[in-house]
Design goal:
The chain has two helices and eight strands; from the N terminus they run E-H-E-E-E-E-H-E-E-E. It is α/β, with parallel strands linked by helices and 124 residues long. It folds into two domains: 61 residues, 2,3-Dihydroxybiphenyl 1,2-Dioxygenase, domain 1; 55 residues, 2,3-Dihydroxybiphenyl 1,2-Dioxygenase, domain 1, CATH 3.10.180.10. The strands form two sheets. The protein has a four-stranded mixed beta sheet, with helices on one face. The longest helix has 11 residues. The model has no long low-confidence stretch (mean pLDDT 94).
Length: 124
């Protein structure tokens, strides 16, 4: 079955469950630099703008361990500035490298240990 574009689902958000909600919200807002769209402290819910989709941080007592099965990939315009910001926050950052496809990428983890990839295309 080939669905037309208007019939295909659109990814609204990725939900990340955490037992350290305050720390994760701070990190995604202040260190990663995402814009907060909704923040409900009493419910332990925060929704961040991440380009055309969103990242939701949900407070859960039993959030589970970080998984190596997935990562969040964020396109940035200035990878070097992102790298400096992450290092200043004492994040463990894998040195940025250039891929054969032409983009540069760094790898890090959020406070829960979830794998994040930040990448940028070369500017002309």
């Amino acid at each position: 079955m080939d669905l037309r574009a208007h019939q295909r689902p659109a990814l609204f958000s990725v939900e990340v469950r955490t037992s350290q909600w305050d720390n994760m919200v701070f990190w995604y807002r202040n260190i990663l630099g995402l814009r907060v769209l909704v923040r409900v402290v009493d419910d332990g819910y925060a929704l961040f703008e991440a380009g055309d989709t969103r990242v939701a941080i949900l407070s859960r007592e039993n959030a589970g361990e970080a998984s190596g099965r997935w990562s969040l990939g964020f396109e940035v315009t200035d990878l070097e500035a992102a790298c400096i910001r992450l290092r200043e926050a004492n994040a463990d950052v894998v040195e940025p490298k250039t891929h054969p496809e032409g983009f540069r990428e760094l790898v890090t983890n959020d406070p829960d240990g979830n794998l994040l990839r930040l990448f940028a295309w070369p500017t002309v």
